[in-house]
Design goal:
With 409 residues, the protein is of the alpha/beta class. It has a single domain (13-391), classed as Glycosidases (TIM Barrel, Alpha-Beta Barrel). Helices cover 37% and strands 12% of the residues. It is built from 16 helices and nine strands. Strands 1-2-3-4-5-6-8-9 form an eight-stranded parallel barrel, surrounded by four helices. Residues 1-48 have low confidence and may be disordered.
């Protein structure tokens, strides 16, 4: 399977993430760049690359991995690549509600989540479970009124009942959970004390839905790392939102949660980077200060959805690949100076399976090239840029040890 569809029944990722029941924007933040050349002997398959990315990262105390889904790893060549390169698996689709509960009356269906978590376990990979609470991911089986017209009691039962059931099923098997995703105001967007108020849970339950989601998660699993996950911290994004506003709102939200004793252990930065003008628009000192602020609050930091939107770059693939690689280099050279960054995950490993091609095709018709490996699963300059950045990262004490450590890899 080599397409970019998230469901054999014809549900595209765009439909899943933006589903008819939601009003939230799809997470896509900012950044971009110049050029990093691959070594002269870089040609060939992933198997010919010097060392898998996860092992390079682990030497510096980092965990490297990627998102994937059952529909992607049915491609055996891609599954082999993922098995080789990743030490942590981000559950891209299989814990979203369109899989777990495709309609309001559907019983919970763990068929796909069992498969993806089983794949990770068989391959000695950690699991990053995503996302327990979000205003998207429902798919076409949910309509606007199915969520927005709920009374508070029904909304609490639906949201927190589902959260509890999912976490209890995978207790001890999923060490890291994205508990609340994309709840913080974007740039100067409308919100209340840093929280978006244009999501159904805010309207039906109130702002305390965030507090409650974390307490419910902690009750379901005493040992899991619980985090918030969001985007928009690098440069002005395609919607005009300013990163300094998003950083300020994020710290406001986190300070209120932590002061109230809410068990937030970590923060996930999606890092969907915008290539166009990244070198000029990325304020590296301000970004370092933001990461330090998160760490100062006692939070571990995870880069969770790293990729590069190549708008504004030439269509010629070799040139574009060098420019995309430079974005990775510039970004990671900054992010990995913070020793409390514990993990780096790309949003996919290969251009064969990137949401950007389906949701945001280039106007010139050239295929998107946002990831470390190309459509044929061969390493690109981006691979070597990521490898170089991981190899040069500040050493840190590992937060998690992947089960595969010590295996041949």
């Amino acid at each position: 399977m080599t397409g970019n569809r998230s469901d054999h029944a014809g549900v595209t990722r765009r439909a899943v993430l933006r589903g008819a029941a939601t009003a939230g924007l799809l997470g896509a933040a900012s950044a971009a760049g110049l050029g990093v050349a691959a070594p002269a002997d870089a040609a060939g398959s992933a198997g010919g690359a010097s060392a898998p990315l996860w092992r390079t990262a682990w030497r510096r105390g980092l965990v490297y991995g990627s998102s994937t889904a059952t529909w992607q790893i049915s491609d055996t060549a891609y599954a082999d690549l993922f098995r080789r390169e990743a030490a942590i698996l981000f559950t891209e689709d299989d814990l979203l509600w369109y899989r777990l509960k495709p309609t309001p009356t559907s019983p919970l269906d763990f068929t796909y989540s069992d498969q993806i978590i089983g794949f990770a376990e068989r391959n000695g990979q950690l699991v990053f479970g995503a996302h327990l609470v979000w205003d998207a991911g429902f798919g076409p089986g949910w309509k606007h009124h199915d969520l927005w017209d709920l009374d508070e009691k029904a909304a609490r039962k639906l949201l927190f009942g589902t959260e509890t059931a999912v976490m209890e099923r995978y207790r001890g098997r999923v060490p890291i959970w994205s508990v609340v995703n994309e709840a913080i105001t974007n740039g100067r967007g409308e919100g209340v004390r840093g929280l978006r108020n244009d999501v159904p849970w805010y309207r039906t339950i109130g702002p305390e839905y965030v507090h409650t989601a974390f307490h419910v998660a902690r009750a379901a699993d005493r040992h899991a790392c619980l985090l918030m996950n969001d985007f928009g911290y690098e440069t002005v994004n395609q919607y005009g939102d300013r990163p300094e506003d998003k950083r300020r709102a994020t710290l406001t939200v986190l300070d209120r949660l932590l002061a109230a004793g809410v068990p937030v252990n970590a923060f996930g930065i999606q890092a969907h980077l915008l290539a166009d003008g990244f070198a000029e628009r990325f304020d590296a000192p301000a970004y370092r200060r933001f990461l330090a602020e998160l760490a100062h609050r006692g939070l571990k930091i995870l880069i969770t959805e790293l990729d590069v939107l190549d708008d504004g770059l030439p269509p010629h693939a070799p040139v574009r690949d060098q420019l995309v690689a430079d974005v990775y280099r510039r970004y990671l050279d900054v992010a990995l100076t913070e020793p409390d960054v514990a993990a780096v995950m790309s949003f996919g490993l290969s251009d064969r399976y990137t949401w950007l091609q389906e949701d945001y095709p280039r106007k010139d018709g050239a295929r998107r090239r946002p990831l470390p490996f190309d459509d044929h699963l061969r390493p690109k300059p981006a691979f070597y840029a990521v490898q170089h950045a991981l190899n040069g990262a500040v050493r840190r004490w590992p937060t998690w040890q992947p089960p595969r450590v010590g295996s041949p890899g």
